Amino acid sequence: MGRGFYHPSTRVIALGRLLLATLFLLAIWIDVSQPANAPAATYTLLGTYVAFAAAMVAATWNNWWLDAKAAGTAHALDILWFTALVYLTDGYTSPFFIFFVFLLLAAAIRWGWRETALTAILVTILYLVAGLLAVNSGSDFQLYRFVIRTAQLVIVSLILIWFGANQWRARFPLRFDDLLAEPSLDKSPLETGLQAAMESVGAARGALVWREHDRKQVLAFTIRDGRRTDIALKRATAPEPVTRAFLYDPAKGRGLTRDHERNLRALDPIAAIGEGMASVLGLKEGLALPLLLDKGDGLLFLERVPNLSTDHIDLGEQIAAEVSAHIQRHALLKAAKDNAEARSRLVLARDLHDSVVQFLAGAAFRLEAMKRSEAAGRPLEPELIELKQLMLQEQGELRSFITGLRSGPEVTLRDLARDLHALAERLSKQWTIECTFTGDESDMAIPTRVHLDAHQLVREAVANAVRHAGAKHVRIALDAGADSLRIDLVNDGAEFPRYGDTIEPPQSLRERVDEAGGEVEVARGMDVTKLSIMLPVRMGSGA
């Protein structure tokens, strides 16, 4: 709905009153048989009522404060005029039914079911009194019509009381699905939330004050003509947060909100907003919305709103809920992104540990061996050449690792077997051990992530066997099933630590296998240790 097309329900009530009064005056002027009683008094009464209705429209059209304050008095006068007109008119020109519906609808829209029920009871009683007065006046009174009309009033009363009991609300056709779509992590959710709230009600100016519970600083800014202006605001300037939306006019000391039963309640806008904050933000007249979240709280202000009325209090509750949900979604997305980044850093650190760090440890191992060779008088050049070759191979391995991260989602089992065979040869030279590989070779597709995990797990397992168990021989076997890969590593080193009857694998291995969604088992027998790793191949890159 475009700007300027919405008319508040209270404005509709004022217009309805004026139209009804004008229609009845015109109806009895055309019908020569009416008024049935006291023609001069009837015309005077109707003329006065038309003037009153016109004055109410003019006075409350753009004045939400006067409209709220005069609502009770105007409602009482409507009821009195209804009673008098029912007594003075008759036949099809009698306004009893349409006026009765108008009174109950006005009560339901302005207040709630209690006021609607009280209005229905009072108007029905007054209708009965008017009927009894008509009988005593000697006019042509028709009992059956009186009974039928009374029954109609009771039925309509029950319907409109139900309408009020279901707590009618002013509903605006908000476009929050478009305005507050999936939050962008590149934009502030407070700024996008304020912009969406402004557009939803056509506000020309907006402001937002936000404070997080664990910080002393208060964030405040305004938006006007699409431009944001940050405001320096001290935390002491911001009052305690309110819990309900409210209309405000600090210059005139006017404020209105609704309680939990939808009754309008006056409030002190300075106490709710804070004199310092109202002055710094330059607040004039508008709608204030509380934002209450776990991480913090704030106030959102919308000013220069077309057709501002008490309906906007109900609307404010809707907007506040949507903006709060928008901020919460942004916080959850940011937390998810931070978690994903932390996980990526952890995986990258582990991969570097399993490749570069382990290679450097192996290089140090070789250098120690070369030192001993030098002491024994053996030439170092062949070993230096071999170490250089290993460094070049490791450089190629690191490039392959980076390429694997950038490559497509799948490779073949044949590629994995070839790479593990080459890795076993390099590990033999790196650690000065006998490391052999046998494995299944086929064109079975496996995820790239599993290929990288298997590669790093073998490197880590061999390094652990040599450095911590003193292994001299390591046999690697690869076997592929329909849904998983199995890698068996058998070494002749010392036994892994036991915890009771359970042999625990190295923590770094267990963590990587767990993250890949796999399983790891350790068995000991015949002076060898068998490490079995199962990796799923049907979980794709998310494994």
Order the strands across the largest sheet as they lie in space: 3-2-1-8-7-4-5-6
- Overall outline: elongated
Largest sheet: 8 strands, antiparallel
Count of strand segments:
17
Q: Given the helix and strand composition, which structural class is it?
A: alpha+beta
Can you give the helix content as a percent range?
A: 55-70%
Share of β-strand residues: 15-25%
Give the distance, in angstroms, between the N- and C-terminal Cα atoms.
48 Å
Mean pLDDT: 79
Low-confidence stretches: 1-5
Description of the molecule:
The N terminus is likely disordered. By secondary structure, this protein is of the alpha+beta class. A hairpin with a 3-residue loop joins strand 12 and strand 13. It has 15 helices and 17 strands. An 8-stranded antiparallel beta sheet has the order 3-2-1-8-7-4-5-6, with helices on one face. A 5-stranded mixed beta sheet has the order 10-12-13-17-16, covered by helices on one side. A two-stranded antiparallel sheet has the order 9-11. It is 55% helix and 17% strand. Helix 3 packs antiparallel against helix 4, helix 4 runs antiparallel to helix 5 and helix 4 packs parallel to helix 6. The two termini are 48 Å apart. The protein is elongated and about 135 Å long.
